[in-house]
Design goal:
flavoprotein; Glucose-methanol-choline oxidoreductase N-terminal domain-containing protein; 515 residues; oxidoreductase activity, acting on CH-OH group of donors; GMC_OxRdtase_N
């Protein structure tokens, strides 16, 4: 994308990214999970298993009567259970949010009761990882705090995993045995070894799970040798096939008389306003940082499936060939701010001006990236090349996204708030210029996955359906890096469900049954 580099946010804290993300909770299309089992060859990994695991993880606590506007704020109790993760609705809705939901009718996107029943298609107020008091619910408070007093649980922070320790007697065999982990104390730089009683389980995510495997000698032979790492298990698939969703926006200025009603830009863009809100928050007074403002930029996400004949027409027929049908292709989000916030040749947010953004995320991208090592140091960063927009279909989808976003903004419900398009601006009209705009402003949607895929090894896999790393014993990976096909939704819901199902698989393998 025009040789750009950008930061990729990760949650380096207790609770991981569930403690820092945008709070949206969804599960996506049943067809994706059934594909895991039926096409990718992973018995037991299907929609019904993931649905039951999601119910095990969640409890719905949302109360629309506590919000200022409960338009399209509905849910189906059958999609939630009695688990530790709380799911609810945002407490404060900007006035322009319901207008956006109504405007999506121009794309044939209409209100639905719940988007977590096996199809995300449609629009409603999004479900979020929020408790009864509109405060964040995460894996830290939902899972860790409940287990923190267990005698067999020790959590080390500021500990960087350097490599996996293998039984030297098994090196050179067809199955090397993992017996522990080496980690670096981030405060002192000293190395420590920890032995495992049963297994080592990696859950370091799409970037660091393949990174740790490679630092341990598991991965592409030439890449490992380049940095002086002796291959223990050669698997050319480690760190390959990275999938992700991307996002970019069409941005409008807000009419001055609606600056605070339709937008929350002032709180983000004006340091004086931000400081005032922060002071009020910490004093316990009324503030847009208080519990009602759990998600100031909104959480309204519409999901669109593009018919096959339309995909062919716009030059994205490869999506059909890849069997990425019967699912959502675009997520259309509403942001009551300038999003993503950075300056480029198309401008940037100005002080004393409020903005709203229509954002599209491509949920059926065909471009594939890589995660490689750049040294043999455990404290170095992975070398990430997401390879966005490398496939013609993805470029066609980006051009179409601009047209979709503009159609939504031309709806009377949105025009009532708009003072005009500021990015990309009225001069951008050709397909070539629209694609250039996408290349210049597109950002990750923070959904990287599939770098240690659960597939047969000969089909590009790193682990089997029991999460076991090929060529090893006592080593598994259980995180988003194992997804063969990326779900058509934000990854919070799928990650919790995958973790619950993975825990059940591991316990059964050890004869522990369900938990």
């Amino acid at each position: 994308m025009n040789n750009r580099t950008f930061s990729y946010h990760r949650g380096r804290t207790l609770g991981g990214s569930s403690s820092t993300n945008g709070l949206y909770y969804g599960m996506g299309s049943s067809s994706v999970y059934n594909y895991w089992e039926e096409v990718e060859g992973n018995p037991g990994w299907n929609w019904e298993a993931m649905r039951q695991s999601a119910k095990k993880a969640t409890t719905f606590v949302g109360d629309p009567s506590k919000t200022n506007d409960n338009t399209f704020m509905t849910h189906d109790p059958e999609n939630y259970g009695n688990g530790p993760l709380k799911i609810g609705f945002q407490g404060k809705v900007v006035s322009s949010g319901p207008s956006f939901m109504k405007a999506l009718e121009v794309l044939d996107i209409h209100p639905v009761r719940d988007q977590n029943s096996g199809s995300p298609l449609g629009i409603r107020q999004g479900t979020m990882t929020l408790d009864e008091n509109f405060m964040r619910s995460s894996s830290y408070d939902g899972y860790y705090l409940q287990a923190s007093n267990r005698s067999n649980l020790n959590v080390l922070d500021r500990a960087i995993v350097a490599s996996i320790i293998f039984d030297e007697a098994t090196l050179g065999s067809d199955e090397v045995h993992a017996v522990g982990v080496t980690f670096v104390d981030d405060t002192s730089g000293t190395f420590h070894n920890v032995s495992c009683a049963k297994e080592v389980i990696l859950a370091a995510g799409a970037f660091h799970s393949p990174f740790i495997l490679k630092q341990s000698g598991i991965g592409p032979a030439e890449e490992l040798k380049k940095y002086g790492i002796e291959p223990v298990v050669v698997n050319e698939n480690v760190g390959e096939h990275m999938q992700d969703h991307t996002a970019f926006s069409v941005i409008h200025a807000v009419k001055p008389e609606f600056a605070r009603e339709a937008s929350t830009t002032d709180m983000e863009n004006d340091v004086d306003v931000l400081n005032k809100e922060q002071r009020n928050f910490y004093k316990g007074g009324e503030s847009r940082w208080n519990s009602k403002w759990s998600a100031p930029s909104g959480c309204t996400n519409g999901f669109l499936e593009i018919p096959n004949h339309e995909l062919e027409k716009l030059g994205a027929g490869d999506i059909i060939t890849a069997n990425l049908t019967h699912q959502a292709h675009n997520e259309i989000l509403y942001e009551s701010v300038w999003y993503p916030k950075f300056f480029n040749q198309y401008g940037g947010p100005k002080k004393n001006t409020s903005y709203i953004s229509i954002t599209v995320s491509n949920l059926a991208a065909l471009s594939r990236g890589t995660v490689k090592i750049g040294s043999n140091s455990a404290t170095s960063d992975p070398v990430i090349d997401p390879n966005y927009l490398s496939e013609p279909a993805d470029r066609a989808m980006a051009i179409q996204a601009v047209k979709y976003m503009r159609r939504v903004m031309q709806h009377p419900e949105m025009q009532r708030w708009s003072a005009g398009e500021v990015a990309p601006g009225p001069d951008v009209q050709s397909d070539e210029d629209m694609l250039e705009y996408a290349k210049s402003t597109m950002v990750p949607n923070w959904h990287a996955s599939s770098t240690c895929r659960m597939l047969p090894k000969e089909k590009g896999g790193v682990i089997d359906s029991h999460l076991r790393v090929y060529g090893t014993k006592g080593l598994r990976v259980c995180d988003v890096s194992t997804f063969g096909r990326l779900p058509d939704v934000n990854l919070v819901g799928p990650v919790y469900a995958h973790a619950e199902l993975g825990a059940s698989v591991i316990r059964k393998d050890h004869g522990d049954g369900e938990y």
